[in-house]
Amino acid sequence: xxxxxxxxxxxxxxxxxxxxxxxxxxxxxxxxxxxxxxxxxxxxxxxxxxxxxxxxxxxxxxxxxxxxxxxxxxxxxxxxxxxxxxxxxxxxxxxxxxxxxxxxxxxxxxxxxxxxxxxxxxxxxxxxxxxxxxxxxxxxxxxxxxxxxxxxxxxxxxxxxxxxxxxxxxxxxxxxxxxxxxxxxxxxxxxxxxxxxxxxxxxxxxxxxxxxxxxxxxxxxxxxxxxxxxxxxxxxxxxxxxxxxxxxxxxxxxxxxxxxxxxxxxxxxxxxxxxxxxxxxxxxxxxxxxxxxxxxxxxxxxxxxxxxxxxxxxxxxxxxxxxxxxxxxxxxxxxxxxxxxxxxxxxxxxxxxxxxxxxxxxxxxxxxxxx
Length: 371
Hints:
- The chain has 10 helices and 11 strands.
- By secondary structure, it is α/β, with parallel strands linked by helices.
- The strands form 2 sheets. It has a 6-stranded mixed sheet, with helices on one face. Strands 3, 4, 7, 8 and 11 form a 5-stranded mixed sheet that branches.
- Strand 1 (112-113) and strand 2 (119-122) form a beta hairpin.
- The longest helix has 17 residues, at 322-338.
- The protein is elongated.
C-alpha cells in the first residue's frame, strides 16, 4: 500500500513522456494501416469518436485512485447495443471438438422434437401455403446430418450387465467443408414411395435431381384434409455388419455368456411438415379416423460415410474407414464392457486409454453368477 503513490506517479510521468515505438526488428504490435492513421488524424482530440484528450499528471493520479476497475471484473462487451447482440450469425457454428455445422437446424423455430429425438415436426401455416418457402426450408434442414450411433447391450435374463452408446456423427462431417459428400435427392421413377395418398406408388415422377420444387408445389396444391411432407436424413455406405462382427468378437473375448445386442439407431433423422389444424386438435384427430390422408415421402438428405461400399475399388471415406475407427475405439469399448458401463463411451474414455493404457491387457472378466 505504501508504494502505490510512487507507482502511480511513475505511470503518470510515462504517459506524458515520449512514446516508445518498436523498430522493424523488434517484436510488438504492427503499425496501423495508413488509411486508419489518416482517419484518426482527422478526428478532433476529445470529441466523440476521437482519441481522449490528455490529462495533466496530477489529474491522472487522482483519477486512477478513484476509478480503478474492481477485482475480477469481466471484459467489457465489444457490442454494447442489445439489439446488435441479439442478432445471431448465420451459417455453421464453431465449437471446439465438434463437427462444423449449423446446429440450430436441428430444432428451428415453430418445430417440436419427439421424445425419442428422431423427428422434428411443425404445423406452420406458411409451409403449407408457400411452395418456395417449403423448398427453401427443406434444403436448409438437409445441410445437417442425422446422428448415427452404436448401441451395445449385454443381458442375462432381466439383468443388464452393460449398455454402451457411441456417437458416429463426426464420421459424416469432414474438417474441410469442401470434402463433404452429402446431397439431396428425390425419389426416382422406379422407386416405390408415398407420393401423395396412403399407398406407395410410382406416379407422379418429377425426376431424381430437379423435383423438389415440383413436389413442394404439388403438396401445397393438395386439397386433402390431412397431409404431410417428410424429409428423411439417411446414412450411406457405412459397413455396420463389419463393425458388429468386431464388437461381438470383443465381447466374446471377455468370456461373457449372456445375450449380446448390437444396434445402430439413428436420431435426428426425420422432418415432418403437417398442414395446420383448420379447427382444433380434437376435431382433427376425430376427422382423421374417417377421412383420407395424403403423405409425401419423396425427399432424402443422403449423408455418405464413404464414396462406395466397403471393399469397392477406389473407395474414399469422408473422415476414416471402419478399420481405423475400430482400432481407435476398441480399447475404450472393452474397458467400458469390463467395468459394466451403463451410458456413453466418449472421447474422454479414448483419452484415458491413450494416456493411462486402460483397456489394454483385459482378458477375462468376472461376471458373477449367471442369473
